Amino acid sequence: MPSHPHDLLRRAIALAAEARAAGDPPFGSLLAGPDGAVIAEERNTTVTGADISAHPELKLARWAARELDPATAAATTMYTSCQPCQMCTGAIARSGLGRVVYALSDEQLAGLKPGGGWPDVPQEGPALYAEARVPVEGYY
């Protein structure tokens, strides 16, 4: 029986609570198929797994890219306790998932963190276009 979107968000929030109880940051996510059935779920394990990239959204995107054909991936919805970060958003796009529904926005999350969000890291570029394009040109 298909689940209501709020029920799926509540499950993502419950996964976030499980992550926190285990000593990890409080984030949880799941993938639902077009019928609303949960096909995979994950929680944050960045602390217990000693891996800064172990966000549930990233883990699900990687799973979907390995396990689902493109049409199935495009028909899924990720339900997540918080809006995906830039790293996870990139992985979600590359995995071909259909859409994302989240509970807390980035702004809301930053308001709950002492000191707000993460600091910006300065970036410089582009540079060395003629050299950098060589391994890329013709790949896509």
Describe this protein's structure.
The structure is a single chain. A hairpin with a 5-residue loop joins strand 1 and strand 2 (38-43). This protein has a four-stranded mixed β-sheet with strand order 2-1-3-4, with helices on both faces. The protein is an alpha+beta fold and 140 residues long. It is built from six helices and four strands, in the order H-E-E-H-H-E-H-E-H-H.
Layout of secondary structure:
Layout (H helix, E strand, L loop, with lengths): L4 H17 L6 E5 L5 E6 L12 H12 L2 H5 L2 E6 L3 H10 L3 E6 L1 H7 L16 H4 L8
Parallel strand pairs: 3-4
Antiparallel strand pairs: 1-2, 1-3
Helix pairs in contact: 2-4
